[in-house]
C-alpha cells in the first residue's frame, strides 16, 4: 500500500515530472518508492525503506548480481529517487541499520543476505550523489533522541558508566525507554537490544502503528546517538567503509581534520566539525587518533625498556626501583585497556587482533607480580625464579605489540587478516589431526607397551608429524611384529602425505580466498580503530601513566563529592597540567609539517560551504532535482518525437540505444565504486569510452532513419 507522509523535504516541490518511475517487479506488481519527508522520525524512515527493500528483493542474489545485473534495477531507481527528493539526515543511518538487521537474520539466509547487500549498495551509491562535505554531514550525523528535548551535556564520571565513557554501542543505550541512563549493559546485551529493535520494527511491514506499539516503546531507541559510520562498523558493512569518500572522512578523523571536541571546558559538547586552529583549543588535539597511536608506541617502547632492564637486573632478594616503575607501567597499561574495553565493548574490542595481545600481556604481568610478591614474602627461591620465567614470556607478545604500528600500513595491514583467517583454519584442521593421532597413540602404546612408555610414544608420533618419518621405522622392531609394521607404515604415509599435504593445500586456498578481500578487512579494522579512538563521549582522556594519577586523586573524592561542574573543571585542570608538554610537541609538529596551510577551514573536503557537520543541507537535493528535471523533460520530448516513427527498425535501434545508455551508466557506477577496491581506473575508462562510441553510432543511425522517414512521409503527403 502507498505510504503517506505529512510533508515533502524542504526545498523540493512535489511534481509529477520529478517523481521517479517505480520499478516493475519481474512477477508483475510495482514496488512503491518510499516518500521520505525530512520531518519523519528515524523509525519511520527505517520502516519505509524496509517495505521497499522487502518488495524489491524477493530472490536470493549475490552482491555482484545486485550491483551489475537487472536484479538491481529497483535499487538504482531507489538511489535515483533518494538522490533527487530525500534530504532526511538519517537516511544513511537507516540503510545501514537495515543492512545489519538483514545480515544477522538466520531465516532464509540467502534472501536476507541479498537484502543486506541491497541496503549497503543503496547507502554507498547515495553518497555518490553528494559532494564530499555533504557526505561528511550524512556519515557523521548522530540519531537524536526524540524524547530528550533538553540538551544533555556529559559529565566526567568514573570509568565504566554509560553516559561518560560509552562509545559506539554503549552510548546508544543511555536513552533506552524504560531503562536507567546509568545502567551498564554487557556487550552481548547491547548487540541483542539493537538486533531486536530493528527486528521488531521490520516484522510489521505497514506504514501505520495500528496496535499503538509506537506509543509505548520505540524499537529504534537503542540506535540513539550513533552515527552512520558507527552503525556501519556494527553491521560489518566493509564495502561501504571501503568507499573512497568514506575513507576520506575516516582519514580526516585520523589526521585530526575532523574533530568532535572543539575545546576542553566545563560546558563542552561533543559535535563533529572541521578543525580550525584559529578557534579550536590546542588540547583538543589530544583526542586525534594519530597522536593517540603515536603516544601509544612511545609508551610501549618505554615499557619494553623497563621490561628488559628488570630481566637483566634480576634481583631475587628485593624489589628494585626499576621494578617499581615496571609495576607502574603495568598498572597504567591495564587501566587504559580496561577503559578502552568499556568504551568500545567486547564486540569491537575483539575486532582488533592486537587487543588479544594486550590481554595476554596483562595476564602474564599479573601472574608475574603475584608469584614475585608471594615468593619474596615466603622466601621461596623456586617461586621467585618461576616468576622471572613467567615474565620472560611477556616478550612473545610485547615485542610484536611495539611494532603493531606497522599494521596501519596498507601492505602489512593487508597481510594480518590473511594470517588471522589462516590461523582459524589451522586450528580447525588440528582438531582432526588430534582425533586421528589419539587413536594411533592408543594403539601403538599398547602394541609397544613392553619397550616404550606413553611419554616416549607421544614424542615419537609428534616427531613423525613434523617430518621425521625415520623415527617411525626405528619404532617398528619395538612393537608387535604382526600388527606393528603395517600400522606404522600406514601412519607414516598418512602423516607425511595426506595430512601434511591437505594442510598445506588448505592454507594455500585460505590465503588465496582471503587476500582478495584483505583490503576490505584492513580498511574495516582501521576504520573501527579510528572510530573507537575518536567518537567516545569521554571529554577528559588521560594518557597512561597519567591515568593512574587521575584515578588516585578523583576516585576517592567521588565517594563523598558530587560530580558537578567543579569536579569536571578539576579534571580538566589536571589534564592540562599533566599533558601540556605533549600538546606542545603536537603543536610544534603541526607547525613544521602543515605550516600556514592548516588554517584551511574545510580541510580539503569539496562541496557547498556549511558551518556545521551533521546537519545536511537541502541544496544538494535542489541541485539534483533541477538537473534531472531538465533531463527528464528532454528525454520525454525525445521519446514523444521518436514514438511517431513506427517502423520496427527504429524501435529496435531505440531499444538498443536505451540498453547502451544503461550499460554506460552501469560502467560509470562501477568506475565510482571500483576506486574503493583499488581497481585500475584506466580499464573502466576504456570501457566507458567504447560504450560511448557505440551509443553515438546508434544515435546517428536513429537520426538518419528519422530523416528518411520524415522525407518519405512528406513525399506521401505531396502525392
From TrEMBL:
Residues 300-594 form the Calcium channel YVC1-like C-terminal transmembrane domain. Residues 10-20 have a biased composition (Polar residues). The keyword Transmembrane applies. The chain crosses the membrane at residues 295-312, 354-375, 395-414, 426-446, 488-507. Residues 1-23 are annotated as: Disordered. Keywords: Membrane, Transmembrane, Transmembrane helix. It comes from the Eukaryota. This is Podospora anserina S mat+ genomic DNA chromosome 6, supercontig 2. It comes from Podospora anserina (strain S / ATCC MYA-4624 / DSM 980 / FGSC 10383) (Pleurage anserina).
Amino acid at each position: 500500500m502507498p505510504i503517506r507522509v505529512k510533508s515533502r523535504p524542504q526545498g523540493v516541490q512535489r511534481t509529477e515530472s520529478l517523481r521517479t518511475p517505480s520499478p516493475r517487479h519481474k512477477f508483475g506488481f510495482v514496488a512503491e518508492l518510499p516518500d521520505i519527508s525530512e520531518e519523519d522520525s528515524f523509525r519511520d524512515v527505517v520502516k519505509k525503506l524496509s517495505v521497499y527493500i522487502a518488495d524489491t528483493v524477493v530472490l536470493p542474489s549475490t552482491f555482484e548480481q545486485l550491483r551489475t545485473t537487472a536484479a538491481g534495477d529497483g535499487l538504482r531507481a531507489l538511489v535515483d529517487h533518494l538522490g533527487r527528493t530525500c534530504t532526511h539526515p538519517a537516511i544513511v543511518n537507516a540503510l545501514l541499520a537495515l543492512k545489519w538487521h538483514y545480515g544477522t537474520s538466520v531465516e532464509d539466509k540467502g534472501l536476507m543476505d541479498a537484502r543486506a547487500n541491497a541496503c549497503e549498495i543503496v547507502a554507498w551509491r547515495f553518497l555518490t550523489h553528494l559532494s564530499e562535505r555533504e557526505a561528511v554531514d550524512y556519515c557523521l550525523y548522530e540519531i537524536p533522541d526524540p524524547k530528550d528535548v533538553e540538551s544533555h551535556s556529559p559529565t566526567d564520571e568514573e570509568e565504566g558508566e554509560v553516559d561518560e565513557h560509552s562509545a559506539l554501542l554503549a552510548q546508544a543505550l543511555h536513552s533506552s525507554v524504560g531503562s536507567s541512563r546509568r545502567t551498564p549493559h554487557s556487550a552481548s546485551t547491547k548487540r541483542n537490544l539493537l538486533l531486536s529493535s530493528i527486528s521488531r520494527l521490520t516484522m510489521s511491514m505497514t506504514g501505520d502503528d495500528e496496535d499503538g506499539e509506537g506509543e509505548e516503546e520505540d524499537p529504534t531507541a537503542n540506535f540513539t546517538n550513533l552515527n552512520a559510520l558507527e552503525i556501519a562498523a556494527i553491521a560489518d558493512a566493509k564495502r561501504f567503509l571501503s568507499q573512497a569518500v568514506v575513507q576520506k572522512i575516516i582519514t580526516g578523523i585520523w589526521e585530526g581534520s575532523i574533530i568532535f571536541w572543539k575545546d576542553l571546558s566545563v560546558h563542552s559538547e561533543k559535535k563533529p566539525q572541521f578543525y580550525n586552529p584559529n578557534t579550536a583549543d590546542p588540547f583538543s588535539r589530544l583526542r586525534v587518533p594519530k597522536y593517540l597511536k603515536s603516544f601509544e608506541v612511545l609508551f610501549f617502547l618505554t615499557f619494553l625498556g623497563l621490561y628488559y632492564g628488570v630481566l637483566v637486573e634480576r634481583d631475587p632478594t628485593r624489589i628494585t626501583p626499576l621494578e617499581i616503575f615496571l609495576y607502574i607501567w603495568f598498572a597504567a597499561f591495564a587501566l587504559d585497556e580496561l577503559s578502552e574495553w568499556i568504551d568500545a565493548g567486547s564486540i569491537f574490542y575483539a575486532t582488533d587482533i592486537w587487543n588479544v595481545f594486550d590481554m595476554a600481556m596483562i595476564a602474564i604481568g599479573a601472574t608475574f607480580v603475584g608469584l614475585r610478591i608471594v615468593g619474596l614474602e615466603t622466601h621461596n627461591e623456586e617461586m621467585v625464579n618461576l616468576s622471572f620465567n613467567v615474565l620472560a614470556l611477556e616478550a612473545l607478545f610485547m615485542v610484536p605489540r611495539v611494532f603493531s604500528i606497522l599494521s596501519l600500513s596498507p601492505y602489512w595491514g593487508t597481510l594480518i587478516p590473511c594470517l588471522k583467517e589462516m590461523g582459524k583454519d589451522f586450528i580447525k584442521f588440528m582438531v582432526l589431526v588430534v582425533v586421528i593421532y589419539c587413536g594411533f597413540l592408543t594403539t601403538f602404546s599398547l602394541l609397544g607397551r613392553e619397550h616404550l612408555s606413553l611419554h616416549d610414544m607421544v614424542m615419537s608420533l609428534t616427531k613423525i608429524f613434523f617430518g621425521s618419518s625415520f623415527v617411525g621405522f626405528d619404532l617398528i622392531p619395538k612393537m608387535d611384529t604382526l600388527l606393528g609394521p603395517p600400522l606404522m607404515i600406514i601412519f607414516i604415509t598418512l602423516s607425511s602425505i595426506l595430512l601434511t599435504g591437505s594442510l598445506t593445500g588448505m592454507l594455500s586456498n585460505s590465503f588465496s580466498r582471503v587476500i582478495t578481500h584483505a583490503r576490505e578487512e584492513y580498511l574495516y579494522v582501521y576504520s573501527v580503530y579510528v572510530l573507537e579512538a575518536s567518537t567516545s563521549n569521554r571529554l577528559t582522556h588521560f594518557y597512561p601513566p597519567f591515568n593512574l594519577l587521575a584515578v588516585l586523586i578523583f576516585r576517592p573524592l567521588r565517594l563523598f563529592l558530587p560530580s558537578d561542574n567543579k569536579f569536571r573543571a578539576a579534571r580538566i585542570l589536571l589534564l592540562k597540567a599533566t599533558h601540556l608538554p605533549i600538546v606542545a610537541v603536537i603543536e610544534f609538529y603541526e607547525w613544521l609539517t602543515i605550516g600556514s596551510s592548516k588554517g584551511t577551514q574545510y580541510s580539503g573536503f569539496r562541496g557547498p560551504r556549511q558551518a556545521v557537520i551533521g546537519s545536511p543541507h537541502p541544496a544538494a537535493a535542489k541541485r539534483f532535482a533541477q538537473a534531472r528535471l531538465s533531463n527528464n523533460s528532454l528525454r520525454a520530448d525525445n521519446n514523444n518525437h521518436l514514438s511517431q516513427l513506427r517502423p520496427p527498425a527504429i524501435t529496435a535501434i531505440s531499444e538498443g540505444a536505451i540498453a547502451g545508455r544503461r550499460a554506460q551508466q552501469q560502467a560509470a557506477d562501477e568506475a565510482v565504486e571500483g576506486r574503493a577496491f583499488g581497481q585500475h581506473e584506466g580499464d573502466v575508462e576504456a570501457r566507458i569510452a567504447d560504450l560511448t562510441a557505440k551509443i553515438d553510432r546508434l544515435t546517428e543511425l536513429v537520426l538518419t532513419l528519422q530523416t528518411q522517414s520524415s522525407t518519405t512521409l512528406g513525399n506521401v503527403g505531396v502525392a
